Amino acid sequence: MRSRSNSQFVVLPGGRDPTQAKMSPAALLLILLFATARSQSAKNPCVNPRGQEGTCINIKQCAELIEMLRNQRNEPGVADFLRASACGFDGRDPKVCCATGPPPKTNITPRVKIPDESECGFTGKTVNEIKVIGGFPAPLGAWPWIVALGYRSKTSPEPRFLCGGALITSGTC
């Protein structure tokens, strides 16, 4: 070894300086191909809103999110999920963090049907006892945000008070 200005040099066999060494075109091509393949396999890793590992790709290449757009776009939370999945643009197309594994199983809650008129307002049980213990009658208007809901039937003009309600506004907070 010889030293020049505190740097160390290695002399190659045949007296060649390593800074003058040349790489064969075939070896250079192999290194470039390997580096390109590596970068393609590790395309922009990301984590989607569910915490799954994914790849940032054009939305047109992400089957899961395309399916969400087509079939679930009006479901609660889908628009927020799609917005949170955005990770850039590919020209005019958005890029999204597309999960690399299968999507997680989700429980789909069926939509609640509005009850028939004949069932609306009924608990299915008859309540005849007073539920307030130790209370006292309140004068009309004492609690203006509380109401008793009365129901009239076709057979009786007098209302039956079956439940109550409360008005909550910023003024009551």
UniProtKB/TrEMBL annotation:
- A Pfam family that this protein carries is CLIP
Instruction: Please name the SMART domains in this protein's record.
Output: CLIP
Tell me which species this is from.
Diploptera punctata (Pacific beetle cockroach)
Signal sequence span is 1-41
What's the name of the protein? Clip domain-containing protein
> Which parts of the sequence belong to the Clip domain?
45-98
Keywords of the record? Disulfide bond, Glycoprotein, Hydrolase, Protease, Serine protease, Signal, Zymogen
Q: Which molecular-function annotations from GO does this UniProt entry contain?
A: serine-type peptidase activity
A biological process (GO) of this protein is:
proteolysis
InterPro entries per the record?
Answer: CLIP (IPR022700), CLIP_sf (IPR038565), Peptidase_S1_PA (IPR009003), Peptidase_S1_PA_chymotrypsin (IPR043504)
Highest taxon in the source lineage: Eukaryota
